[in-house]
Design goal:
Blueprint lengths: L2 H20 L7 H24 L10 H22 L7 H4 L1 H14 L14 H21 L9 H14 L24 H12 L3 H43 L15 H22 L2 H17 L2 H21 L4 H28 L5 H4 L4 E3 L5 E3 L2 H7 L5 H11 L4 H17 L2 H11 L12 H18 L2 H30 L1 H11 L5 H10 L5 E3 L2 H4 L1 H5 L3 E2 L14 H12 L5 H11 L3 E5 L15 H12 L5 E6 L3 E6 L1 H5 L11 E3 L2 H4 L3 E2 L6 E7 L3 E2 L4 E9 L9 E8 L13 H12 L4 E6 L15 E10 L7 E11 L6 E2 L13 E8 L7
Parallel strand pairs: 1-17, 3-4, 3-5, 11-18
Antiparallel strand pairs: 1-2, 5-7, 6-7, 8-15, 9-10, 10-12, 12-15, 13-14, 13-16, 16-18
């Protein structure tokens, strides 16, 4: 880096920051302003630090922006912490961070590279450069066209609401992001220094947090591609770097058809990639053992930990496993093992103060939703592991590469980058897929154990297979070439789905746009804008869970409830908040119960929302059109207590007059779907299991239908006594006998049936799940003197064979991520097998009109 170039970047940093902050660029598009703010606050300081260190990633300058991202996050995070120490609002950094950022360039110019500290020579082939840049450009295009999803069930409303509260308060760690009464329960250890970084970028760019959140993924995702290329460079040189870049684009989170790459702005996804960059830097340091490579590793580690504290756990596991691998490979404490120990100690020394501060101030897990065992697979009554299903949910079928490659990894373990793939995948397996690992860590980490599958770098695994196969082919020999062909053929089979998904996504992005729009909280953005303008500041709003977080996401106001798992691990009131909102808005509830909820949370406004394209699929309760009409009619019977101030027909806002509410005495109203229990009539009820209601009766109101038709089933339930609050689910399953002659072993029945169905292109089983009575009347409220009638409509899928289906019903109490038994993956008689209640006939599909 020449002094002239460094000074030019210093001037550019200052100019971009002050022009943006002064409003001189307000006429420019939001995306351009965000890109300038992102560069001024994160990327340019990161590059300055790289230049000052004299460090470059594997692959050289073309990939440097990936590492600059991590170093820039670490630097801006340190500035945020400095404002915290000085008791200053962190928002001061929006314009003034430009001064220390420019100073970094002056430092880089004065220091410059030293002959005694040679930078490893980059050797990225020009063709590889082009391939990598094309992959990065496609990542940017994909994220720019579709944006980060902001559905009510995603994390986006949670994060955007936190960022908006940060900007309003000047506090980088607000405890009242959503709940005015949160107190210590609002401290969230999952939200680190990346959220205030995003807030500063949005503030400097003069862009609202919502569009900023949606657009930033287009700036960050390409850098993920560069970091994947840098790591894969260590696996297979220029070819590996190009393959790794494209593998990241095509397979991140399974495929481009999933939302994960578009969530590049999420702290978890950012930390995932910065941790990969840190691993690349550590491995690069094992090769070159220079001051620059070690400094880069330490800085990137701090950036990853700043983004999300889970990175510290990842480093402990991955670098610990790598250290053991080095000891076993080299048969003792040799050069690389000693270097790794020194680098890891440096990482710990730099990151530990921040980690300790966050742990002492924010970590006290007491959220009953989070601490409930979930996502587990029970091998027997006492032995459990993480469910294998998370591999498919978060990685698609690409996870298969790791166990298939273990033998090949072991043969190439003389290369430390390949050894990292081997030891990391083995360590993840031992931690989350062995009973002792889960038994040890589950009480501490809970559902976070499922995140360990993200430690597996799929892009690097793909690069390894491709480059190893190419090398085997070049060496020659019949066996080697046959093995190479088989390896590439297997990889092609695994890549088939990601490649097809990518083609569909790029050719028809409108499909994802329609899916996103159907569940986006932006459907009622106009109503929220009115609430922000017209309701008194710091209003506390009572709403349904699906609407709740959209309020702090787009307004200055607070809410009283949350969506499923979306609250701090420290929020001991999480489940109570959800159930209180349910009861306070219940169309049949007494006004005394509503008054209790209003007083408990200091509620000043109520929102009823009927703009959902479909009934939200939530864990506890969700609004539907019938509920909306009934809830609205109830409130409007008492206009003195609930004053309607906004009404579009499908979205209505009321302000609460507490004095008038105190005078209301209407008792709980009868529910049309509840009748009295009659022992002589209902004594044949069939139990569902301990701690669950019994099934009194079941009747198919429509006993036959063609694909595309609706079948209606009437179920009657009775609770034997008070049941605990929680997430209850009713599973209705339809089973058709398999063709004669096809009788696989019982212990392999499910995989065999699925293979048969896949080849036949038709299904012999389908299932529909729903909340009991759609969540309108919680199971925890059912009394033993009541029979609850649960009417469910079930769509007959288009791909089922015609014939008679046995109908089975089961009620379950299950967490957000269900727990399964090992036999559920192999036996057709599985977790969802219930009581037989009748027969449904699927008739042949009707001819099209």
């Amino acid at each position: 880096m020449t002094r002239a170039r460094a000074m030019a970047f210093a001037v550019l940093t200052l100019a971009a920051a002050f022009l943006l902050h002064g409003g001189a660029l307000l006429g420019w598009p939001e995306g351009v302003r965000l890109a300038l703010a992102f560069a001024a606050l994160v990327l340019l300081p990161g590059h300055a630090l790289l230049a000052g260190m004299g460090a470059l990633p594997p692959g050289g300058p073309w990939l440097a922006s990936g590492w600059a991202l991590g170093l820039g996050v670490a630097w801006l995070g340190l500035l945020v912490l400095l404002t915290r120490m000085l008791h200053l609002p962190f928002t001061l950094l929006a314009p003034w961070a430009a001064l220390p950022n420019a100073a970094l360039w002056i430092f880089a110019a004065r220091r410059g590279p030293r002959p005694s500290e040679p930078v490893p020579a980059p050797d990225l082939h020009p063709i590889a450069v082009v391939a990598i840049l094309v992959a990065a450009a496609l990542a940017a295009l994909h994220c720019a066209r579709l944006g980060t999803p902001v559905a009510y069930f995603t994390d986006s409303p949670d994060h955007i609401g936190t960022i908006r509260r940060m900007l309003a308060s000047g506090d980088a760690f607000p405890r009242d992001a959503f709940f005015l009464d949160a107190g210590g329960g609002g401290a969230d250890p999952r939200k680190g220094l990346w959220h205030p970084c995003v807030a500063l970028i949005a503030d400097l760019a003069r862009v609202d947090p919502l569009p900023a959140w949606r657009l930033l993924a287009a700036l960050i995702a390409p850098l993920f591609v560069l970091n994947a290329a840098a790591f894969a460079m260590l696996i297979g040189g220029s070819t590996g770097a190009a393959v790794g870049a494209w593998a990241l684009l095509l397979t991140y989170g399974g495929s481009l058809g999933t939302q994960y790459l578009r969530e590049a702005v999420f702290a978890t996804k950012l930390a995932d990639q910065l941790a990969l960059a840190t691993a690349a830097a550590v491995l690069y340091d094992l090769q070159h053992r220079t001051k620059q490579t070690r400094l880069a590793a330490v800085g990137l580690a701090l950036g990853a930990v700043s983004a999300h504290v889970f990175s510290a756990i990842q480093f402990g596991l991955c670098f610990g496993a790598l250290g053991i691998g080095l000891l076993l490979r080299d048969r003792g404490l040799r050069v690389e093992a000693r270097r790794l120990i020194g680098t890891v100690l440096a990482l710990v020394g730099v990151c530990l103060p921040y980690l300790a501060w966050r742990a002492l101030g924010a970590y006290a897990p007491s959220n009953p939703i989070h601490t409930e065992p979930q996502g587990l697979l029970y091998l027997n009554d006492s032995m459990r592991i993480i469910s294998f299903g998370v591999l498919w949910d978060w990685m698609g079928q690409m996870w298969i590469l790791f166990p298939l490659s273990w033998w090949a990894y072991a043969r190439s373990a003389h290369r430390s980058a390949v050894l990292y793939l081997l030891t990391t995948s083995l360590a993840v397996t031992l931690v989350i897929f062995t009973p002792w690992g889960v038994g040890l860590l589950s009480p501490k980490l809970g559902y976070l154990l499922m995140r360990f599958v993200w430690l597996l770098p799929v892009s690097a695994a793909v690069a390894f297979v491709v480059t190893t196969a190419i090398a085997a082919w070049r060496v020659g020999g019949r066996v080697r070439r046959a093995t190479a062909v088989l390896a590439l053929a297997a990889l092609g089979m695994l890549m088939r789905h990601p490649l097809l998904d990518a083609g569909v996504v790029f050719a028809h992005p409108e499909r994802i746009e329609r899916e996103d729009a159907a569940v986006s909280v932006e459907r009622w953005q106009d109503a929220l804008a009115w609430m922000d303008r017209e309701l008194p500041a710091r209003s506390v709003v009572l709403s349904d869970p699906a609407t709740s977080y959209s309020v702090p996401m787009m307004t200055r106001h607070y809410v009283s409830t949350l969506v499923d798992q979306h609250s701090s691990p420290n929020d001991s009131l999480a489940l109570r908040r959800i159930l209180d909102a349910r009861d306070g808005l219940d169309p049949a509830s007494s006004f005394a119960r509503t008054r209790e909820v209003v007083q408990r949370y200091g509620i000043t406004a109520i929102v009823l929302n009927n703009r959902f394209a479909m009934t939200p699929h939530l864990d506890y309760w969700a609004p539907n059109p019938e509920w909306y009409r009934a809830a609205r009619a109830r409130l409007e019977r008492a206009p003195a207590a609930f004053h309607r101030v906004f009404d579009t027909g499908d979205f209505v806002v009321y302000t609460v007059n507490r004095a008038a509410l105190d005078t209301l005495t209407a008792p709980e109203r009868p529910r049309a779907y509840v009748r009295a229990y009659v022992a002589a009539r209902d004594s044949m009820a069939r139990p569902m299991g301990a701690g669950l209601p019994a099934l009194v009766s079941a009747r198919l109101l429509t006993p036959k239908g063609a694909p595309g038709d609706l079948s209606t089933l009437l179920l009657e339930w009775r609770s034997p006594g008070a049941l605990p609050a929680g997430s209850y689910l009713v599973a209705v399953r339809f089973d058709h006998a398999l063709p004669a002659g096809f009788s696989p072993p019982v212990w392999f029945g499910k995989p065999a049936r699925k293979l048969f169905e896949n080849r036949a292109g038709a299904r012999y089983r389908f299932r529909a799940d729903h909340l009991p009575v759609d969540g309108d009347f919680g199971v925890d409220l059912w009394g033993p003197d009541q029979v609850i009638q649960d009417t469910v409509s079930i769509l007959v899928p288009p791909d089922v064979v015609a014939g008679d289906y046995e109908v089975q019903v089961r009620m379950l109490r299950q967490p957000h991520y269900p727990n399964y038994r090992l036999q559920d993956y192999f036996f057709d008689h599985d977790y969802y097998t219930g009581l037989p209640v009748g027969t449904f006939r699927v008739t042949p599909r009707r001819p099209q009109d």
